[in-house]
Amino acid sequence: MEYSSNYSLFAGEGEVRSLLRRHDWSTFPGGEPERWPAAVTGILRMLLNSNAPMCFLWRPELTYFYNDAYVQLIGAKHPGALVRPFWESWEETRESFAPILERALGGEFCSMENMAFSILRNGALEKVYFTYSLLPVFDASGSVIGVLNSGVETTGHVMFNRRQEFQLRLADRIRPLTDPDEVIASACEMLGRYLGVTRVVYGEVAGHGETISMKRDWSDGELPSMSGAILRLDDFGPVLAGAIRAGAWLAVPDVTSDARSAAYASVYAANGVRSFMGIPLMKSGALRAIVNIHDANCHDWTADEIAVAQDMVDRTWSAAEHARSQTELRAERDQSKYIFDSMAEGFAVLDSDWTVLRVNGEGLRITQRTAPEVLEKNHWDIWPELKGTGLEAVYRQVKETRKAEIVEMPYAFPDGKQGWIEVRAHPALDDCLAFFFRDITERKAYQERLKDADRRKDEFLAMLAHELRNPLAPIGAAATLLQRVKLDDEHVRRTSQVIDRQVRHMTSLIDDLLDVSRVTRGLVELDNASLDMRDVVSDAVEQVMPLIQSRRQVLDLHLAEHAITVTGDRKRLVQVIVNILNNAAKYTPEDGTISLAADVRDAQVLVDISDNGIGMAPELVSRAFDLFSQAERTSDRAQGGLGLGLALVKHLVELHHGSVECESRGVGKGSRFTIRLPRELVARQEREPQASDDLQAVSQRVKVLLVDDNADAAAMLAMLLEAAGHEVIVEHGSLAALERASKEAPQVCLLDIGLPDIDGNALARRLRAAPETADAMLIAVTGYGQEKDREDSMAAGFDHYFVKPIDTKELVSLLSGAVGRSRAS
């Protein structure tokens, strides 16, 4: 389909773009799109191209624009909300959202985390949470022309955290209880208050599931207690009874209208129930218990409420069973030896004078003692180091209050290992004390590792956001300058260089992320060849030298006079040296010194890079090669980086069967990195000549068909190829390209993969089948960079595959080989 240039803003794929293209703009207050302010069109272009959920409110009517990613947030309100006043769709949020929106319309950037809203979904108000930011958009005069809103619904995250908090509080509440009925009553009360319902009843199933014996329950006072009642499951209908017996949960919002319960509504009414949820508990294939949650009013049960109730049933059953076991333990100590010795945690009993009466095998193993060393001995004589600690205080409190307690504490084991133990102390008969204990050292260490990993993850995400935003500022400024100011050739060249440098910087960051992912998953294949490490080092130095010179640093280079030969991938080894040199330059003060030496020692090639920079603390040295590992950052993040470079270095060196080490004598004392690679015994005879990086015009003209639906990208690439001396034909759609190719017979076809009518792979097949282009060189130029995408394109008939942003020098060099080309069959 051809679109008017008036609507090029909406060109491309996606439901929202399609709706905007078909919209009748003749009555729109802002006029036709070509009359819109540059600030609006710029924001809308960015919004429509973004994969993140975004919307834009254009004042004064607050006209509502959004992208495809935002559709899932607006839900059933789409598409009627598009290009309509915002409050027509979100009137129910006005009270909570309007004050914040007014602040943004006043020019203030606003950011909210996990803010609660009540919105209409499926005909009912639903409480949801959003994290979002409101960014005022200014026109050329500095007035706020609208507000850009980027956000994400965090309801699931908030509810998950609430659910976890409830589960922890529930566990803490019922864990020390020794009476099964108290466990059940406490759990029912906590669940009822959490859900805000009328009554929660815990029932145990008798026989083969015919009857339910209601144990302890909780009610808010509106409905009477059902504790002690015995109900027949079949009285509530065969559908519901069958589901419960099969172990399936049930949630009925209204017993009078739900087809599963309507015929038995009178039975529910007799128990004061208008809405209910039933959660069965299956053990060893049999129905053992049911938690019944009743509400005297209609209640739309949510997935979160169901999940909380399911967890409560299981925890309550386990805790009640545990409490029963403890009761039986106190009542029948003479029959408990087998139970004690088969436990997976330590268990011991102390009499009123602290004498150890009993200890199981696991307890002896944990404490690294033998039975004769422990039994009939005084507890404080065996473990004098525990005297006066928090553990003694817990023991005495349990004896005094007759209530179970739990404590976690650091402990030095007899073998010298420092660790942690968990002790659960319970009152026993005759003023005795029973306690369970276990070694939780590994769990504590794992929790610390999780905390550290989470911290490093948060720091990495913050740094990634910072590093990706940084290049956008100069790019945006350069683009604005090119649009608004008439520049001479020198200023255009300098502005273009700024854009080129920043795009390369962003591409480098993304490449680092992809590289780490591929390397750590073992998806990188090395292009091995015989290499002279002097050439590798020279290439790396050439790349890093501009940074070193800009910081007025001295590079002291020492290379062996003879060939230093290894087998490896030249590009990857250059990447290794560049990463370390970049780090050295960034973390060495201006006017500092960096040393690089490459030589042979026995059967190894050694590359040693040292500096007199800021150095590293010992704890950082030990994890220098971990993912996302960096020294503590300051607010200006002057050194930058994502903490990926050294992790990538380690993996790449190990792929070459080598090793890399890091040394530092401390903060402010510089750093040293040593790379060791296996030496190749047969030395190369001469060093390979280095290719020039200059972009030269070609000696022979090539006819190129360029197909890309992104008009700007196509125009820029066409200008570059024409500057190199080639004839370029540009088309923005596949069908038009096929017709043009049949007339022009191009020698080279550069095709985008994500075209709007038929995709680039299908276009390549048709070009390859046409006689005019059967022998043409087909080159994919695309943003899709996964290996599967590359394989699909090569199978479709492409000869080469470039991922945007492309290496233009490499492309021009490739086109020079297309003259007189005849494709191999």
Automatic annotation (TrEMBL):
The EC number(s) this enzyme carries: 2.7.13.3
Superkingdom in the source lineage: Bacteria
Catalytic activity entry: ATP + protein L-histidine = ADP + protein N-phospho-L-histidine
Alphabetical list of CDD domains matching this protein: HATPase (cd00075), HisKA (cd00082), PAS (cd00130)
Signal peptide: none
PTM-bearing positions, type 4-aspartylphosphate: D752
InterPro entries the UniProt entry points to: CheY-like_superfamily (IPR011006), GAF (IPR003018), GAF-like_dom_sf (IPR029016), HATPase_C_sf (IPR036890), HATPase_dom (IPR003594), His_kinase_dom (IPR005467), HisK_dim/P_dom (IPR003661), HisK_dim/P_sf (IPR036097)
Sequence ranges assigned to domain Histidine kinase in this UniProt record: 463-681
Boundaries of every Response regulatory domain copy: 703-819
Keyword annotations of the record: Kinase, Phosphoprotein, Transferase
PANTHER family in alphabetical order: HYBRID SIGNAL TRANSDUCTION HISTIDINE KINASE C, TWO-COMPONENT HISTIDINE KINASE
Protein's UniProt name: histidine kinase
Phylogenetic placement of the source organism: Bacteria, Pseudomonadati, Pseudomonadota, Betaproteobacteria, Burkholderiales
